[in-house]
TrEMBL record:
Ribonucleoprotein recorded as keyword: no
Subcellular location(s) of the protein: Cell membrane
One cellular component (GO) term of this entry: plasma membrane
Protein name (record): Flippase-like domain-containing protein
Species the sequence originates in: Jiangella asiatica
InterPro entries membership: Kinase-like_dom_sf, L-PG_synthase/AglD
Main location: membrane
NCBIfam families in the record: flippase-like domain
TM segment ranges: 36-55, 80-100, 112-132, 152-169, 199-219, 496-514, 534-557, 569-591, 603-629, 641-661, 761-791
Keyword tags: Cell membrane, Membrane, Transmembrane, Transmembrane helix
Membrane topology: Multi-pass membrane protein
Taxonomic path: Bacteria, Bacillati, Actinomycetota, Actinomycetes, Jiangellales
Length: 800
């Protein structure tokens, strides 16, 4: 949209019309910072609920101490504060509505009323739930009790006040906010002294009110704070820039303009508070998963962005590298700022063809990076979109805002790796390597080889690499050949993988779950009553299961592999299950032991995949057959609760939603294609070889039977008894669940599933818990020590 505005005379300069060409700005926006705050509030309330469960006495004790303090405080001041806060609470909502209507803010008035109604309803619903079906610990923590009469857990009035003030917090209503703070703080102080509210209820009221207010702001949006092009042009004129036109330049996520002026073409970067908090969650996730040295700096607020961009622009210029010259930083009102640069006409490297990029341009790029390297300045966002080739053929570095000064060596090497990949995508591997070595030397260029991995690259470069993954391997091989250096191991840039994070969280939950089960067991009584003969038999059967696992894997490997080598790997899994999910550890170790034994890696992966499919193909029919034979499904008398059904439905719905996401479907298709290409032929090879088929089936059945009998003997050892066929169903289901749950060895989930299953077979609850814990002690904890010994010894001998 092109508009013309009449500029006012400024500082005695002659002025004329300013032509502004920009798309229309949205009138209302949803600010990322509100989403970030809402996430924080929800996390805090979840932590409060968890604290109420695991540390109930902390909150209830604090509430009791404050109530006792009421005896030493004179009643006069308390009554005055109570009257003033209640009066303010009653007057504030209608006063706010009146002020907003006088100002003509009808939409904000509606938002305020909606927020107030939602906050009141939410407070009432939560109070009703806490007073009724909520767990006892939550009830005791949040519901006040005076003279044996339960009070209201979440005060509705304070919740309403917090919600409506959150909705109007961006307006110039400073006195209103101060009165609201007094009303809320005074009400809570009086109620705590009188015992009419708990500390937990107070915090929950604040959280619900804040969350509702933020939710209304996110759904409805707020008036945009972004200045339009006319305001930007007026500020430029007011600061001495004779601007005649201003054109939007949509090159990235920021608002950029190109201004024509008597001082020459200018680049104008506009920042405003509408984007505060953008990318903060992604940045936090990246910081958890990836080392800080290769991540670009993230600016959460407008002020931090202005400071970071300005600092880095000056640092890159002082280092001698070409980047558009910073002219000025201008304030546009109180909620926006403009950073003014010299505009450099040209095209970014990603938009050029190989023929358009000369070797002189590439060498110029390496010289710019060499200057940054000598001055220890990191860019951290180098890609084909931040390398500009001007109309005169010179190379300029754009957007240095993510970098830093006095940068670590790893960050500087990552810059070079990013530039190498960005150039190789455009001009090819050979020209990129030749020009880089010619300018920077072999030693410097070789330092980038370990960093040629996707996690070290800019997001735009990773997108460009999709479908061209061979570029990284060709670049790595070419650098090894060109520099004459032996390839180093890739630098470990990932701190934590998503699966490891899920595993850690699951392990904490599992330890808590198992701990609650152990609290019901008397170990002294168990020690005196256990039948050690059956326990010895259980240990023997547990180690027999390793023999079955060995035979099961060997049956799917046509090549000759030593029995004891495979056996050692299966026992070492007893240790590795402690640090990784069962399925992940089994697959990784089995592939590794086969490749170390001389089996080609693709064939080893195919054999392990076929082994996994064989286990599934035998286990599930066995469960079904045993269930029919015993007339049991491992839980014949269980009437699923509503919560259980809800959880199942949520899991199924989440799986369905994930299946609708294109990257997930692509990954699933890739896994199936990989199995169809490698695992299926191996499976057919086994089916066509009677001897191998017999070994594989015998091994799988021996492994399953050994674990079933181990579980049965553990039940006998603690004085219990059950139908062995029904118990087999319970054990197979529990073992299958343990393979699926992302906790070490299925910890927590297996114990819960086995205990619930055994309890349905007529075994007492205490006996069931004891038998399951003894079985897990034998099958999970006991093999850890021999597994660790074999793991270390096989690694030393390069067998694993």
């Amino acid at each position: 949209m092109t508009e013309t505005t009449e500029a006012r005379p400024t500082r005695g300069r002659s002025t004329g019309k300013i032509v502004v060409d920009e798309p229309p700005l949205p009138r209302r926006t949803r600010r990322p910072i509100d989403g970030l705050r809402l996430l924080f509030v929800l996390t805090a309330m979840t932590a409060l609920a968890a604290l109420a469960v695991v540390a109930e006495r902390t909150l209830t004790g604090l509430t009791a101490d404050l109530a006792d303090f009421n005896r030493t405080v004179p009643r006069g001041p308390v009554d005055v504060v109570a009257f003033a806060s209640q009066l303010a609470s009653l007057i504030l909502p209608p006063a706010l509505v009146f002020i907003l209507m006088v100002r003509g803010r009808m939409r904000t008035t509606v938002e305020l009323l909606v927020a107030g109604a939602l906050a009141s309803v939410a407070a009432a619903l939560v109070s009703t739930w806490l007073a009724g079906p909520a767990p006892e610990r939550l009830h005791d923590t949040f519901v006040p009790s005076a003279d044996g009469v339960a009070g209201t857990a979440v005060p509705a009035m304070t919740t309403l006040l917090v919600a409506i003030v959150t909705v109007v917090s961006r307006l110039a209503l400073k006195r209103i906010r101060q009165i609201t703070a007094f009303a809320v703080a005074g009400s809570f102080a009086v109620w705590l002294f009188r015992g009419d509210v708990t500390v937990g209820g107070m915090l929950l009221s604040l959280g619900i009110g804040w969350a509702v207010g933020l939710l209304v702001r996110l759904v409805s949006g707020q008036p945009s704070l972004a200045p339009n092009g006319h305001k930007v042009a007026a500020v430029l004129r007011a600061n001495g820039y004779d601007v005649s036109s201003l054109n939007a330049d949509p090159v990235d996520k920021y608002r950029r303009y190109i201004a024509d002026s008597l001082q020459g073409p200018l680049g104008v970067l506009v920042l405003d508070r509408d984007n505060d908090g953008a990318g903060a969650v992604v940045r936090a996730a990246d910081q958890i998963r990836t080392r800080e040295e290769v991540l670009p700096r993230q600016m959460v607020t407008m002020r931090s962005a202005v400071n970071q961009i300005t600092l880095q622009s000056l640092a890159v210029s002082r280092a001698g590298a070409r980047t558009p010259k910073l002219r000025n930083v201008l304030r546009i009102g109180s909620d926006a700022a403009a950073i003014v640069y010299d505009h450099v006409p040209g095209r970014v490297l990603a938009n050029l063809t190989a023929d358009e990029v000369t070797d002189a341009m590439l060498e110029d790029l390496w010289r710019q990076l060499g200057r940054l390297r000598r001055n220890q300045v990191a860019h951290r966002r180098i890609s084909g979109r931040t390398i500009l080739v001007s109309e005169t053929g010179k190379v300029w570095l754009l957007d240095p805002s993510g970098g830093e000064v006095a940068a670590p060596e790893l960050a500087i090497r990552a810059d070079l790796a990013q530039a190498l990949v960005g150039c190789a995508l455009v001009v090819g591997v050979d020209r990129t390597i030749d020009t880089a070595i010619r300018v920077l030397g072999q030693d410097v260029v070789a330092g980038a080889i370990p960093l040629l991995q996707p996690v070290a690259l800019a997001r735009s470069t990773r997108r460009d690499l999709k479908g061209r993954r061979d570029v990284l391997s060709k670049l790595r091989d070419g650098l090894v050949s060109g520099t004459g250096r032996e390839p180093d191991q890739p630098v470990r840039l990932q701190r934590l993988r998503p699966l490891s994070l899920v595993t850690g969280v699951g392990a904490v939950f599992a330890v808590y779950l198992v701990g609650t089960q152990l609290s019901d067991v008397s170990f002294s009584q168990l020690w005196s009553q256990i039948d050690w003969r059956w326990l010895f038999v259980a240990v023997v059967l547990m180690f027999t299961s390793f023999v079955g696992a060995t035979l099961a894997l060997m049956g799917f490997v046509p090549e000759r592999v030593g029995f004891w080598r495979i056996m050692g790997a299966q026992i070492s899994l007893g240790f590795l299950k402690l640090v990784a999910p069962a399925t992940v550890g089994i697959v990784a170790i089995n592939i590794r032991v086969l490749t170390k034994a001389g089996v080609a890696a693709p064939l080893a992966a195919a054999s392990v995949a076929a082994n996994q499919v064989g286990n599934v193909a035998i286990t599930f029919p066995t469960i079904g057959i045993l269930g029919l034979v015993t007339g049991s499904s491992a839980a014949p008398d269980i009437d699923p609760s509503v919560n259980t059904l809800v959880i199942v439905l949520v899991v199924l719905a989440a799986a369905a939603v994930l299946a609708l996401i294109p990257p997930v479907r692509t990954r699933l298709r890739a896994l199936w294609s990989d199995f169809a290409e490698r695992g299926l032929p191996r499976l057919l090879d086994v089916l066509s070889n009677p001897r191998k088929l017999l070994v594989a089936l015998g091994g799988i059945l021996l492994q399953s039977a050994s674990l079933i009998l181990c579980f049965y003997t553990c039940l006998l050892a603690v004085g219990g008894a059950a139908n062995i066929a029904a118990l087999a169903v319970v054990q197979l289901v529990g073992n299958t669940l343990g393979m699926a749950v992302p906790t070490p060895g299925g910890l927590g989930a297996v114990e819960a599933a086995l205990t619930a299953g055994v309890s349905t077979l007529g075994v007492g609850a205490t006996t069931a818990v004891t038998a399951v814990l003894v079985f897990r002690l034998v099958s999970f904890w006991l093999p850890i020590l021999p597994g660790w010994v074999l793991w270390t010894q096989m690694q030393k001998r390069d067998l694993l």
